[in-house]
Amino acid sequence: MTIIGIDPGTACTGWGIIKKKQLIDCGLIKTKPSQETGHRLTIIHKELFDILKKYQPDQAAVETIYFFKNPKSVLKVSQALGIIFYTLNKAEISVKEYTPLQVKHNLSGYGRTDKTEIQKLVKKYLKLKKLPKPKHASDALAIAICHQCSA
Question: What is the pTM of this model?
């Protein structure tokens, strides 16, 4: 089973694909703050759709909004989530949602583990030689691992 994990964002959406305990690929979908919202969301859709076509994952795991201090941030991430869910649905890929606490708890046994420790756990789980980077891609891999361990 091939799983894509997605760490949503409007400026930067992280993605990571795993199969069993092996890293297939990971990266970022980036947009510029100077671009109109509709254009940014279109970029996310097109690039994610291309990734799905290339790697053909069986399942998807997406980090959901759990808590935000800034209402503007929650709105932007919600817009990105909407496009991500739309794109996954169009590709007929089933999606499971996880909160950041669920991901951290699943990987470490503790829901308040810091991001650096999660990166180390992703490295260990996938038997990588160095920490996966950038951080949003590493977060996406953690989400995919969480899903794989929950299935």
Answer: 0.95
